[in-house]
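Sat 14:20. Reprocessing the chain from the morning session after the first attempt stalled halfway. Input below, unchanged.
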Amino acid sequence: MENDLESAILKELELFILELGNGFTFVERQKRMIIDGDDWLAYDNTIFDQYNNLYHDGAEFTYGSCWSLTDNIPLIAQPYPSSVKAEKAYRSHAFNWGMPYPHLRTFKGSLASLLTKEACQDEDGNWYRAGGDNAVFYGLIEAANPDKVIAVQDINYIYNDLNPLNDYKVNPVEQNVTATKIRTMMAEKKLG
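Finished this time. Tokens:
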């Protein structure tokens, strides 16, 4: 019921804005932000403005830097080289540490509809567990226009790697095996 009401209100708002004509823009309605369960956004009231501006300027997918509580250091997201972006060869590109620190991932809502169930499951049809977020990360970044993929280097996310229940502490082998499987996954399984 609530989703129906939200959709109806947003549809009316969209029609109103479109009727205003020149000088007004209606940009896709929803952007998504993925935050791991025990992590949180940095205490900065400008984060949402920053991301709204990125999407207003055309971003389709962002991944960002974070602050490691364990090491008490920033983990800065690195941009992919333009040749990797042009070929959408994200899975085969290895940063020095093996990942682009994608702890705060945001994306246009429409990209989510391109992910398939099979891209998030192993060869036996079981959902990936530890390390399974890699399937979502790579599926979404590959669906986005490469020119609209942004590495956000500001620290907007606190990575709670102090939590003793963190996957890399509880299931390190499973996490690494899953991440490797996903990075080497065949292209036809990635998107619908």
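The longest helix spans residues 2-20.
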